[in-house]
Amino acid sequence: MSTTGLTPTGSLASVGDRRRVVFATVIGTTVEWYDFFIYASAAGLVFSQLFFEPAGQQAAILLSFATVGVSFLFRPLGAFLAGHFGDKYGRRVVLVLTLILMGAATALIGLLPTFAQIGVAAPVLLILLRIIQGISAGGEWGGAVLMAVEHAPRAKRGLFGASPQLGVPLGLLLASGVMALMAVIAPGDAFLEWGWRVPFLLSIVLIAIGYWVRRRVEESPVFAEIAERKVKSRMPIVQLFRKHTLLVIIAALVFAGNNAVGYMTTGGYIQNYSTNPDGPIGLERGPVLWAVAGSAVTWLLSTFFAGWISDRIGRRTTYIVGWVLQLAGVFALFPLVNTGTVGGLFAGVAILTIGLGLTYGPQAALYSELFPASIRFSGVSISYAIGAILGGAFAPTIATALVQATGTTWSVTWYLAGMTVVGLIATLLLRDRSGIPLGPDHEAEQEVSPLYGAKRA
């Protein structure tokens, strides 16, 4: 069996190098999203009581979820910075820096005093640290995606690109699992007093592991070739918006359709809705967290499958099937959750993850194949960040407000269905570019717009 293969640029890369890249992107993104989701989980479970209680119960919940969304507003800043420096100085250096930034902010949240201890300074500091998390998350994804896809053989970009995507369900699994474990170790008031802090402080260990792994990975072969030929764009973000503004918007809407639905669990909404003692269900915290952790496993499997199958039937077709299944999952979610049983809740979120995986697994390859090599980091990062704002940023807050205003979860269902349809329409506007050459020798071909209706070369 051969131990080498051609990279997208035509150079040789060993199987060992590729395996290290896949391992590093999975580990790194898992750590990043563990940090991000730990916050969302805590926001749904305890932050309304610890940091916003003086505002009153209903307003405190809305404020707690709003802090989840605030970080998304700063993702574009992280994407702009990471895209600029990633296109100029390389993918790897950005990956290492974002990992450290995210870990430091997460650990500091675990040390924060509460409102009862230092007053209004507590929520202010909490929001500042969440903003830092948002900046880091905005820069992380694009670098991880390009390291994976640009190292991949042309026929396996979907599979390789699924590796950073796996970090999201793995991060959710790890975050929910650790939170559930702490609910057992420190039940009741102990969880409010100190138990919730342990998962945040655990980030220090995970960051050290992620840092060690990422430092061992070679730079992306596409960027290495760009640097060698001295064809780097001086102002990649300016070039991106001068030529590809509409493409960025359409790509962002693809992700928004997935992200709004995904943040029902990753944003902490289902956890809060199902455990609220004054709500219609009132389940125990621990079993709900374990159910969400279980759904992360089904999400992991469907995401991996989607990356693999997209190499065979194309990114666009995979997405279209995924949107249909996601829509079905949206309409099944609340009828199952509202049965008031842990089994019903697990079934609802697990069914939902099938469509979520199919509309998330191919995203790394899809985005990488949309943009020219010299501005690719900026293109994928900024599209992702804008999509996150339009989709998941305030999805838990919107869902909470809709239920408070209408008294029924059907209003949330129709909101999520609408976002799914938006994602489907955006996908239909894109041509499938599976297998397009990614190296700098093919910039002219990459510059041709993949949007239907645009001029073709």
TrEMBL record:
Recorded superkingdom: Bacteria
Family per similarity comment: Belongs to the major facilitator superfamily. Metabolite:H+ Symporter (MHS) family (TC 2.A.1.6) family.
Alphabetized PANTHER family for the sequence: SHIKIMATE TRANSPORTER (PTHR43045:SF1)
Topological type in the membrane: Multi-pass membrane protein
Transmembrane segments: 21-47, 59-81, 93-112, 124-149, 170-188, 194-213, 245-270, 290-310, 317-336, 342-361, 382-406, 412-430
Single Gene Ontology MF annotation: symporter activity
A Pfam family matched in the record: MFS_1
Name of this protein: Putative proline/betaine transporter
UniProt KW keywords: Cell membrane, Membrane, Symport, Transmembrane, Transmembrane helix, Transport
Record localization: Cell membrane
GO cellular component: plasma membrane
Ranges where the Major facilitator superfamily (MFS) profile domain occurs: 21-435
Species of origin: Herbiconiux flava
Annotated function: May be a proton symporter involved in the uptake of osmolytes such as proline and glycine betaine.
